[in-house]
Specification:
The protein is of the alpha+beta class and 206 residues long. The protein has six helices and eight strands, in the order αββββαβββαβααα.
Length: 206
C-alpha cells in the first residue's frame, strides 16, 4: 500500500513544477459527502469538513459538523509563517484546499491544545476514479514540509522528503542544509533569524 501511495504521489508531482499549485484538472470534482453517523466523531472514524483558515503550513481551522476545530497535521512539520518559505507553504495549502471537501481523522491533542489529525483531499486518478490523498504526504513530496513523526527514528514520509530534496522542490530549492526546522527557528533570537534570510535568492520575506 505504501508503494501504491508513493507511485500516485510521484505521478501527481511529475505534473507540477516546484511551487506550483495542483491543477484543477488533477483534483476530483466535489464529492458526495456521506451523511454524518454517530460513529463519526473524535477517535471513532472519519468526519467531513472544509478548511476555514490556514494558520500556517501544518495548522488549520477546519469546519466540521460539530463546529470549528484547530487541527495540526500528524506527519508533516511546515515552516513557521515568520521564517523562510513559511508563507509560501501556507499559500500552497490554501490554494490546494480552498473550497474542497476534506476527510478528517481526529485523534489526540498536542501540548498547544490543537487537535492532531490526518487530513485527506480527493484527487482524480488517470482512470477517472476519485481517491483520497494525504495532505501531509502532498506537503512533504512538494517540498513544503519536513516528514514528521517524533516517536520514530525514521518518519513514515521520509522517502517522500528525500524525493523532494533531490528535486530541489519548495524549501529545498537552495540545498538540503539551508532550511531551518521550526523547533530550532523558534529558539533563535532576532539577530539569528535575520541572518537566516541571507544567501538564498528563492526566499521571499512576507
Amino acid at each position: 500500500m505504501k508503494h501504491i501511495l508513493l507511485a500516485a504521489l510521484c505521478v501527481l508531482t511529475a505534473q507540477l513544477a516546484a511551487g506550483q499549485v495542483v491543477r484543477a484538472s488533477s483534483l476530483a470534482k466535489p464529492l458526495q459527502v456521506p451523511k454524518p453517523q454517530a460513529a463519526a466523531r473524535r477517535g471513532m472514524g472519519p468526519e467531513y469538513g472544509s478548511v476555514r483558515r490556514v494558520l500556517d503550513g501544518d495548522t488549520y481551522e477546519v469546519r466540521l459538523p460539530a463546529g470549528l476545530v484547530r487541527v495540526r497535521l500528524r506527519e508533516a512539520d511546515a515552516p513557521e509563517l515568520s521564517q523562510p518559505f513559511g508563507q509560501q507553504a501556507a499559500d500552497s495549502v490554501m490554494k490546494l484546499l480552498r473550497g474542497r471537501i476534506l476527510q478528517v481523522d481526529r485523534g489526540g491533542v498536542d501540548r498547544y491544545g490543537r487537535t492532531l489529525a490526518g487530513l485527506r483531499v480527493a484527487v482524480q486518478a488517470s482512470s477517472g476514479a476519485n481517491r483520497w490523498l494525504s495532505v501531509d504526504s502532498l506537503l512533504v513530496v512538494r517540498g513544503w514540509a519536513w516528514a514528521y513523526e517524533p516517536d520514530q527514528t525514521v518518519p513514515a514520509l521520509a522517502e517522500l522528503q528525500q524525493q523532494a530534496q533531490r528535486s530541489l522542490r519548495g524549501l529545498w530549492r537552495c540545498g538540503v542544509a539551508t532550511p531551518i526546522r521550526p523547533g530550532l527557528w523558534r529558539a533563535y533570537n532576532k539577530q539569528e533569524k535575520a541572518r537566516a534570510w541571507v544567501g538564498c535568492p528563492g526566499r521571499r520575506r512576507e
